Amino acid sequence: METIVLFTRAIKAFVLRKPIVSTLIALAAVFGGYWYYSGGSGEEKINFSEVKRGTVSQVVSVTGRVKPSKDANLSFEKSAKVAVIYRNVGEKISAGAPLVALESGDVSAKLAEAEAAAKAERAKLEELKKGTRPEDILISEIEVENAIDGLINDIKSGYVNADDAIRNKVDQFMSNPKSSSPQLNFTLSDFKVETDIETGRAVMESLLLDWNNAIAPISNSQDLSGQTASAKNNLRSVQSYLDKVAVAINSLTIGYGLSQTTIDGYKAAIISGRTNVTTALESLSASEEKLKNAESKLALKKAGTVKEQVDAQEAKVEAAEASISALRVDLSKTVLRSPINGIVTKQDAKVGEIAQAGVLIASVISNGDYEIEANVPEADIAKIKLGNDADITLDAYGSDVFFRAVVAKIDPAETVIEGVPTYKTTLRFKDADDRIKSGMTANTDIFGLRKENTLYVPGRAIITKGASKTVILVENGSTREVSITTGLRGSNGDIEILSGLNEGDRVKIN
After folding, report:
1. Is residue 125 part of a domain?
2. Do 220 and 242 fall within a single domain?
3. What digits encode the pLDDT tens for the residues 414-471?
4. How far apart are CA 299 and CA 305, in angstroms?
5. Same domain flag for 155 and 294
6. Of 304, 323, 354, which closes a domain?
7. Phi and psi, residue 437, nearest 5°
8. Model pTM greater than 0.85?
């Protein structure tokens, strides 16, 4: 319009100089210019596009990387020396085939021992099912007698060790130890501890006298439970007294007639006494338990086989067999096997070297079965779904060589890359192809929603006002605004028209 104004001013100037002829020429020029700039029809020139019928589709383009659909990084669960290598890098291997084996002699020995033990438990089970034999009862009776003898000996040994600890080990630094008022041969800084030790020695003397009188007539015909309980209590009392004495002896220093040699001798004596008493108490408890077990075993045999016994022995057999199964599993773990059919890509084992537990030693990838991993941005993830087809080009073969793929997996959780949420998407090649290699860069076009034989217009033609959408319809040189309903938005900017327009209509391009 500015051009027309300038042109009109020029004509006016010409008319002022040549009034008649110039007027006619000026009028023709003005109308000619107006006709030219208005498109020749008296209308302002309008850019428009026709409503067409065709395909509207969404395509998501991303770049990913080829990887094996299956791979396995393998390591041993336990450390051991490598014995055999079955496969090297580049060799094909089938699922379950061995890669590396460790030395397994110790596990094999344990397995053999467990199998022997299980055999013994099965034999016992068979015996129980047959019933108790008289000779078995006789054997159990002998075991009880031996256990009784052992318990009596331990009761007596307990007394001997207690007597030695008090009357030999402690009394070497006591005056009048067996009297009612024994005295330490040295003075302690803590008067109460000194008094406790001296009065405690008198108590120990009384304890030893009563204990000796009690065990003098002991025999296997007596009820030994009372004697055993009394012996345990006596040994614990002696233990407690020796603990106090040990604290006092350990606090001694050189002086007042005490040399380091003397002090060291006292300490050694008390340590020996305490050790002997503790050992005697442990032996007494073990003998008591042994007698109880022997008596229980004899009682069961005399009572005959009952269902509970059979059930208990069956449980032992099951436990023994479970131990065998566990050792067989351990033995199997000494051989590293491929979990998939494929090709060995890593083999770091060397015969004679120690394979460390948990350290990667071998890798296998599937052979000819590849997939693509790509990260789809948040803005595009809603456009694709499982099963969508895709066209793939690999940088190694150029943009005109296509491979077919399909969307096989979409991770539900996001992966943030440079601040943008993306979703790891896995595509699987539809056809095996020897040209495909692990690690290749893959340019992927994933075909999302697609509408065939539908009306569409360029997105630039649509005017959005709140929730409504309109276009400017061009008809017979005039325009009017028309409400429309839209559908799918294509990746190239085309938008599907569901209602409001017909094929061939012309709409203004904004």
Report:
1. no
2. yes
3. 999 988 899 999 999 988 888 898 889 999 989 888 888 999 999 888 999 888 999 9
4. 11
5. yes
6. 304
7. -130, 150
8. no
